[in-house]
Amino acid sequence: MIYGLYLSATGVMANSHRQDVIANNLANSETVGFKRNLAMFQERATEARARGLGGLGTDPMLERLGGGLLVSPTVVDTSQGELEQTGNPLDVAIQGQGYLMVDDHGRQRLTRDGRMLIDRTGHLVLANGEGQRVLDGAGKPIVLQLSARTEIGEDGQITQDGGPMARLGVYRPANAGRLRNEAGNLLAITDGQPPVAVEATVRSGFVERANVDPSTELVQLMETQRMLEANANMIRYQDQTLNRLVNDVGRIG
Q1: CA 203 to CA 89: how far, in whole Å?
Q2: Which of 118, 206, 215, 243 is 20 to 30 Å from 23 at the Cα level?
């Protein structure tokens, strides 16, 4: 394979991936509790370096160019989003680090989406139409009375008609870099290590907005588009050069 074509192709694929990640961030800029994704890349080692040959038998100039871009796993930006007041006593926002844990039909998932309601069975669930049950600090579903006045304190303590009923569980993953966004504004832990229950400040009557700045994302999207087009143009230029090399230079007069 022609080396220049290979490098330009990796550039097209890497920037196409980054474009998709940024577009997803923009699409969720108004999603409560959404955490933006960061497209990560690293330099790919040349084949000689990957095999530990140290450039033996290869062109020294091409070795210095490297092996192009390699897409790394996408990282979730866990920075705090702005808090927005709703006035709903069952809406909560976590101040600082930590996540609510829910039972997503048999799978434990984390979320910063604190919009909740009490379903017909008395379970405290997310108000997203999917009905994931919110868990307490022991990992058990929270069950409340249907018609009682409900309040949630800053420590996550849930009271109904003045009496304590349960406490919201706030969890912190062992490795925040091992989170993956899923549909429904949930976060999955990819390293298999269970999260740990922690103390946190809970703001009742608030929700956390997405930590996405649309203007920043749009600037990055335009930069990515330009880099993608530049690599595509390089592929076109090299293809034209090869065409002339084969059909013109190599022609026997």
Answers
A1: 10
A2: 206
DSSP per-residue codes, 126-195: ETTTT-PEEBBTTS-B-B--SSS-EEE-TTSEEEETTEEEEEB-EEE-S-GGGEEEETTTEEEESS-PPP
Tell me the HSE value of 27 on the side-chain side, using a 13 A CA sphere: 9
pTM > 0.70: yes or no: yes
Exposure of 227 by Cβ count < 10 A (0-12 exposed, 13-18 middle, 19+ buried)? Answer: middle
User: How many domains is the chain partitioned into structurally?
Assistant: 2
- Residue 218 and residue 146 share a domain: no
Q: Which residues partner with 108 through β-bridges?
A: 103
Q: Which long-range contacts (CB under 8 A, 24 or more apart) does 173-180 make?
A: 173/99, 173/110, 176/76, 176/78, 177/75, 177/76, 179/35, 179/76, 179/78, 179/110, 180/74, 180/76
Q: Domain check: are 126 and 113 in the same one?
A: yes
Q: What domain range includes position 149? A: 83-208
Find tokens 């998932």 and name the residue: 109
Lowest mean pLDDT among 61-75, 178-192, 232-246: 61-75
118: closest CA among 129, 127, 108? 127
The 10s digit of each residue's pLDDT in 96-136 is 889 999 999 889 999 999 999 999 999 999 998 888 999 99
Q: How many other CB atoms are there within 10 angstroms of residue 208's CB atom?
A: 23
Digit-coded pLDDT (tens) for 16-42 = 999 999 999 999 999 999 999 999 988
The residue to which tokens 């993953």 are assigned: 173
Residue 78: its H or E element: none
Residues in Cβ contact with 106 at an 8 Å cutoff, skipping those fewer than 6 apart: none
Residue 8 binned pLDDT confidence (cut-offs 50, 70, 90): confident
